[in-house]
Amino acid sequence: xxxxxxxxxxxxxxxxxxxxxxKSCEQYFCTDCDKHYYVVTDQQLELPERVTVIPQxxxxxxxxxxxxxxxxxxxxxxxxxxxxxxxxxxxxxFKEPVTVDEVFPGKEDGGLVALTWKTKEENPDDFPFxxxxxxxxxxxxxTKQLYVQGGFHGGFAADYLExxxxxxxxxxxxxxxxxxxxxxxxxxxxxxxxxKKFKLLDSTYGRPSQRDKQHTAKIVFQRKEDxxxxxxxRHYKSRKHTNTWLRKLLRRLGLVSD
Length: 258
Prior knowledge:
By secondary structure, the chain is an alpha/beta fold. It contains ten helices and ten strands. Helix 1 (18-28) links the parallel strand 1 and strand 2. Helix 6 (157-175) crosses helix 7.
């Protein structure tokens, strides 16, 4: 039986997505596998035995997303014993059965898997890669690679842990220069994937729920406004970021000293 480690962030109000995520994942996702969940949270929760909590204080926006690579690496010694690892956004909902062979890479695919909403008919120069040359997540115009979403990626355990290590390094390179990549962790994973061979899933395996008008997606991303509220979400993401704020954030993580 294959072993899958499922990585999840539910800090602050975002933990409100957890119950729906967990129930749908248990019902539909790789049901013939041994699944274990690693939940990054600041909450005190009563959770099933197959859930491990990675404690993390609320860093706000965009700290909770930008540093998710680091959060997961804190469980590296446990995670390396799985066959596969997968990171799923908090607002993920499974609607139909999804098997291992559908979503995880084979040897012919390379060691990683990611999700795209884009198509080959679209111009990659229009995709929202980080275009600032001073950022470690910089992707120049002219790339032919499709843009991948930040809410679904994974692969063989060893390959994915290597990706987490490098993505954390890229994140730190930017933060130490006072830069936040344009789409945070999503920009970083797109940088990492440049030139690599990986399994690329289409939006059948992850589509915003409001765009699933034909109800053909097996996995959807629930509208955050529907759970968290539009005004709360707007206020949460309105923080102004300064170098002083970045320095304080890194200090809270123990990544820099006074």
